[in-house]
Amino acid sequence: MENYTMEGRTYRYYGQEAPLYPFGYGLSYTTFQYRDLVLSPPVLPICANLSVSVVLENTGQRDGEEVVQLYLRWEQSSVPVPRWQLVAFRRVAVLAGRETKLSFQVVAEQRAVWAQDWRLEPGTFTLFAGGQQPGQETRVPSEVLSARFTVTGAARTLRGC
Q1: Which residues belong to any copy of the Fibronectin type III-like domain (predicted)?
Q2: What's the whole-model pTM score?
């Protein structure tokens, strides 16, 4: 093998073609609603971590479990990157009619790109939170919330933080 690029070889690099069974694919016996996605701070220095919170409500008639997934998308990068990158997930049990507020931490290392070394780059990013991948078409209603944040400062190697 001489071509080591991942384009067209893994679902993260398929372009517009959706995978048949994406990560998190499955059905539930209840329904969930996401709301109040908060990113803090919305503008952060190049080496800082991002705090994320989201509220998950079980709107169905049965108790259920949901796998809450967080994906990161680089809006501009100096090197090829995936359409989105899974940065966190958590299985949560929620009683029927109840809600829970979840908190996550997205560390600076998760924003790093490979350019002969792991580098952090400034720019705009989009974070997605939901029970599936962004843009995934399913037969059951599911939503994915999104919010943008900005990273400021000069690009640097990950070791420089």
Answers
A1: 66-133
A2: 0.84
